Structures are given as structure tokens and as C-alpha cells.
Amino acid sequence: MTLDGLIAFDQHLLVMLNGSDSMFWDHFILIFTNGLTWVPLLFTLFLLVMKNNETMVQIGLVVGCVLLGVFLSGGINGMIIKPLVARLRPCDDPMLKYTVDVVNNYRASGFSFFSNHAANTMAIAVFMMWLVRSRLLSLTLLSWSLLNGWSRIYLAQHYPLDVVVGWLWGAMMGSVAYYVFYRLYNKVSPPVNYISSQYTTTGYSNVDIHNVMLVLTLTICVAIICALLTMTGSY
């Protein structure tokens, strides 16, 4: 497929996936895509790290490597790749902005390629997947990242290709950040392999992981309630 053919396919796929005729989904996705919505989840992940590491050095190393992963995924993208490629967002593209659905005139600033939402969330998800080694947490955070990426297509802020590349880049940078963590962690702490139904193999409590699941579930429930109230004009 030629580059022009790939771009045409990307635009066609966007039109298929973008928007809906549902006021509820419009309001819900606007809330879902807002970074502030996920502060409780990120704080709970931080508490998970704090409660399951013994020293401030270990905790600082985890936090530092998470920030490294986010910088490598979103920071480099925002500073170098987006300005270099300079692809207009679908909602700003003269060829598409009157064709796609733009919810409540929501238009993010900057360029489109590639999606920071997809890259940053995937970097966090993949890093935590390697760190905690919980199937439940891994599937949940990967789903969280995938839905965040889809929300950007729904809102016409990114093309599908922008989101897919963001996921791939974020997964690579999250893995790079974990590799850095693994090499440094073995220098400050002895390797331990937990064999218990109460902990993962890397020593993270299943009870604390379930607390993360609870906070994520409550966050989604609150987002649903807020979307319903917005529809009725009560929020």
C-alpha cells in the first residue's frame, strides 16, 4: 500500500469509528478522555507501589522510571515528533473538519501524529504489567489504555493510525523504562521470588491490586453518573 493509500484508508476508518448519535456517549467520552478523571487511579497505583516496597530508594526508583517512561513516550513525541510530522488533527483538517463529529466543539491543541493519550497510558500500563506481574491488573490497565486511545478517535482528535502508533511507541517506551528499573533495582535490592496466593511473583499484594480495581470501577461509575446528569442538565 502506498503512503497516499494508507492515509486514505486511515481517513476512511476514522469516519467509520468517529462519534455517534448518543448524547450519553458524547458526554461520557469527554469525561473519560480528561486526564483529571484518572488522578484517583494514578494515586492508587502510587499507593500500591508505596505499600509493596520497603525503602524510599525502591519507591523513588519505581516512580522515577514511570516518569521516564512517560517522558520517553509523550515528552519526546510532543517536543520532536509531532512538530516534525505536523499532521493536522482530523477536527482541524480542512478536508475533514466538516465531515467528522466534533463533540461540544472540543478541539485539542497541537498536532495529531501520534497520540500522547495512547502513548502515555500504554507506557504506564506496560511498565506496571512488568512490575507487578498480575494478570488482572495487566488486562485492566491495557484495556484502560486501549479505551483512552479509542476515545481520541471518537472525538476526532486523532486518526486511527495516530492511536495505533501511540500504543506501539508507548509499549516500547514502557518496556525500556522497566528495563532501566530492573537493572538499577538489582543493584539496590536482592532479587526475591514470591510463591504465595496472597502476592504476585514480584511481591505485590493481591488485596492492594483489588483496591486498584475498585478505584478504577468507582471512577467509571462516577463518569457514567456525571454523563447522565449532564444529559439532564443537572451537572
Automatic annotation (TrEMBL):
Superkingdom in the source lineage: Bacteria
Domain Phosphatidic acid phosphatase type 2/haloperoxidase: 63-178
Gene3D superfamilies named among the record's database cross-references: Phosphatidic acid phosphatase type 2/haloperoxidase
UniProt entry keywords in alphabetical sequence: Membrane, Transmembrane, Transmembrane helix
Protein name: Phosphatase PAP2 family protein
Chain ranges passing through the membrane: 28-49, 61-80, 159-181, 212-231
InterPro entries, sorted: PAP2/HPO, PAP2/HPO_sf
Pfam families: PAP2
